[in-house]
Amino acid sequence: MTWEPQPDGLSQIITLLKQSQSTDNMIQRAVQMKLEELNQYPDFNNYLIYVLTKLTSEDEPTRSLSGLILKNNIRIHGTQLQPAIIEYIKQECLMALGDPSPLIRATAGILITTIANKGGLQTWPELLPTLCDMLDSQDYSVCEGAFGALQKICEDSADALDSSELNRPLNIMIPKFLQFFRHSSPKIRSNAIACINQFIINRTQALMVHIDTFIDNLFHLSSDDDREVRKNVCRGLVMLLDVRMDRLMPHMNNIIEYMLIRTQDSDETSLEACEFWLTLAEQTICKEVLTPHLPRLVPVLVRGMKYCDIDIIILKGDVEEDEMIPDREEDIKPRFHKSRTHTQKPSAAASGSGDGGVRSMEGNDDDEDIDDPYDEMDDDSNLSDWNLRKCSAAALDVLANVFKDDFLPILLPILKETLFHEEWVIKESGILALGAIAEGCMNGMVPHLPELIPYLIVCLSDKKALVRSITCWTLSRYAHWVVSQPHDQYLKPLMKELLKRILDANKRVQEAACSAFATLEEEACTELVPYLGFILDTLVFAFRKYQHKNLLILYDAIGTLADSVGHHLNKPEYISMLMPPLIEKWNNLKDEDKDLFPLLECLSSVATALHSGFLPYSEPVYRRCISLIQQTLNQDLASTTSPGQFEQPDKDFMIVALDLLSGLAEGLDCYIESLVSSSNIMQLLYQCMQDSMPEVRQSSFALLGDLTKACFQHVHPHIADFLPILGHNLNPEYISVCNNATWAIGEISIKLMEDTKPYIPMVLPPLIEIINNINTPKTLLENTAITIGRLGLVCPVEVAPSLQQFVRQWCSSLRNIRDNEEKDSAFRGMCQMITVNPVGVVPDFIFFCDAAASWMTPKNDLHEMLQKILHGFKMQVGEENWSRFVEQFPPQLSERLAVMYRI
């Protein structure tokens, strides 16, 4: 296709492109509107590609901008563009890859990958062969331009390149890339490694057959003069650690030596190399291969934690007082709400592993996202999120977890030197290192803590704000130890100083202190009750003092306090301090303001803690939650029925409102009845329970369970609608949704009693499947066991025939939770089922014995039921068989059963 622009059209577009580089917001807006208007004309995109590829009389930034506008058009309107125009753009882009200007070549590469992503590589079959041929061009610009485009394609479409639909182009591409590892141009060497690096993690077969050549070539380039090349070599080696340790093992000493040098580079290679230590720590051979190198590695990591001059400038490290300066909105990271999940607390007997029970093997609950403490440290949007300092600290942390106290002989002398250093930057890095090793080396550090904790408490009032803020973080890492000591010694002085820091004149220190205090609250729980008035004084004062960003963290500290001290907060004097500022914020925030999220989360914790103390505030809070849910559902409906006219809603508003209603139901209990009866909450809940978004369903099931407990008379009429939806969501693919649905079914069954019978065939089979699935996380296992027990309690005749299918898993999962109402009802159900079907428990009776022994203090009648079953079994099998049976028990279990059940 040949196409020529009209001179008028061309000059109009050039003017627009020039104007769009203006910093004036008004001009920017006008340009935006004009661009939208021009999008109505089909050949507008031809003009854009023409400016990028042909109009060499224009300056490069203007030409590149033209390409970037075209890229957005293709991304948004690509499917509506005429095929002829797309063909013309494709052909021009490929030509422009050889442009003399690196900026134009890169822009053409971006356009090519956008088209390939939008339509799929299969709609442009000649693209990859053409790019691979261009690599062989004698013209350097063509080769480099093609490599740039290929690198972007490898990044975006790694899976597609290895697919049979495309005939596995990687079989040709990888050997081709390997030829360029020794090219004379560093840019091309770097591109070649970067392309292949994309295929390491997925163990792509096309790379695995050439793995030795690849590794040899990486070693060859390890001492390359070019920074980008070395950076990509480090990145490749780090990924190979995870994937082909077998191939790296023979060279491991040399690789470690190499990475030690690279971690000390003065450019960003050091960050790539530092990732190596993080990855190595996860490998089983870490201790064996790294031990000889530790004395050299540890000082390097501690040095890497020091702020460099540019960091201090960016972090305004010399500005001590900035509390009066308002936050810039762009500095406030979006916060994500974590929906409510119903979990069990482990029992005191089960948490220590010396109780001699029959242990079930369980992994971590995959559902829990563990916050990375190094994300919180130096939280500043100007500093790149992940840098050498954070990576070095994280590496020291994971290695401390591998080497435990063997780490300390090397580290303690370094800590002595840095912690008490004259220069604040070095002292600060020492305090960070001390925090980083807290988890791994806790045992070995305990003898030093009586000296170190008071020293750190003094550092909380250091004249440098950056020292004060890191000290908050480090102290929070030792909070567990502090709380376990006599309060007067460490907890009281620490609390006093931390509360002063919450009111620091520096915003970064306020933030660090607030976060550290929240950690202390979680560790201390009700130990904080004597100091509540003092704590609330400070937190309420901070409301008047804080700028926008830290207010959001303050909500979190107040919510955590409520979670930690619970009903102890329900005193008139505390309520009158805490509630007015919270309600004032609540009244000032508009319905569409995202600051509602942390405030609603905070109120949810406060409502749960205050119980009836929250009553005076409950009505407006309840009404607003209902209104937020209604608005979101209405907007969702509008955007689904006429997508062009209405934007999709942010469903987080609805999720947070559902969770706050759960907090209200849990806190107010039966007092919520009047609010429920005068609202359409059941209709709203019915809609939310069927929402396409898992988090909405998760929160609506939590609320359903809480309303069932608080005011079942309002839930009852809707059971026939609700239970099938719950049954349908017993799908462990969405763990938290499944967990809350399971819990809600259990709560409903307890209220419905024998009327649960018609629903048993619908819910029991999926629950049995979940309890028998080896991948089911612990929380879900426990809730499933409780719900099965409750179903057995209300409908023993219907559930008992299946006993054999779940009794072993049931006993194993419930031995680990502490005595509570849920465990009580579940065990009563198990006793009922055993009475109906005693044969069902016989093959797994040892597990039942173990579960019965996990109780600390069962209620009298439950104790009697358990005792009766144990003695009945002993009678049934006879003295001799019983003795043989008991010989299999761990000694602690025999003792516990003898003491508890006289058997």
Automatic annotation (TrEMBL):
It comes from the Eukaryota. This is Importin N-terminal domain-containing protein. GO terms for cellular component: cytoplasm. Residues 363-376 have a biased composition (Acidic residues). It is found in: Cytoplasm; Nucleus. InterPro entries: ARM-like, ARM-type_fold, IMB1_TNPO1-like_TPR, Importin-beta_N, Importin_beta, TPR_IPO4/5. Residues 330-376 are annotated as: Disordered. GO terms for biological process: protein import into nucleus. SUPFAM superfamilies: ARM repeat. Keywords: Cytoplasm, Nucleus, Protein transport, Repeat, Transport. GO terms for molecular function: small GTPase binding. Its main location: cytoplasm.
